[in-house]
Amino acid sequence: MTISNLEESAATLLLRSPRLSVSLVLELLDISDPEFREMIRQNSTLSALLEQRRKGELTFKEPELSACPGCGDWFIPYAAARYCSDECHKMAIIESDRRRSSRSRIVAPFAGIS
Ligand SMILES: [Zn+2]
Predict the structure, then answer these.
(1) Dist. CA 98 → ligand 1 center (Å)
(2) pLDDT for residue 94
(3) Do 58 and 112 lie in a common domain?
(4) Of the candidates 64, 80, 99, which is a domain's last residue?
(5) What are the pLDDT digits (tens) for 73-88?
(6) How confident is the model at residue 1, as a pLDDT?
């Protein structure tokens, strides 16, 4: 069984985030332990990265993964983007509009009292 370069670079990218554990990264990418060991053996960037993690030297923050508040998917935010996609952002706006209008309906009966 071979690991694609894509999985390897994805693993390297994800493991740069100090907030993600190795086991979580393997789970996210569906990589088995033997596959991961093989990856480390062949990829010096990855093995150096793991050594850094082990020593707690992982201090740089970029790129940092965020969970999209819309769909819950992990993504790498571009600039200050909070959502993984325009679709999720639009959904969130619709959702907050809906909440705001239902809140104002509840508040409305009291509006005339004061
Ligand atoms: Zn999303």
Answers:
(1) 19
(2) 92
(3) no
(4) 64
(5) 988 887 778 899 999 9
(6) 46
Q: State the average pLDDT for the chain.
A: 83
Residue 16 CA to ligand 1 center (angstroms) comes to 22
Task: Note the pLDDT tens digit of each residue in 59-74.
Answer: 655 567 888 998 999 8
**β-bridge pairing 66-67 and 74-75:** antiparallel
Q: Are residues 59 and 90 in the same domain?
A: no
21 vs 8: CA distance, rounded Å? 16
Helix, strand, or coil here: 74?
strand
* Residues, Cβ < 5 Å to ion ligand 1: 68, 70-71, 84, 88
Q: Which residue spans within the chain are E strands per DSSP?
A: 66-67, 74-75
Q: Say what the pLDDT of residue 107 is.
A: 56
Query: What distance in angstroms lies between residue 72's CA and the mean position of ligand 1's atoms?
Result: 6
Ligand 1 center to 89 CA (angstroms): 8
Distance CA 50, CA 14 (A): 11
**Do 84 and 40 sit in the same domain of this protein?**
no
| Cα of 83 from ligand 1 centre, angstroms | 5
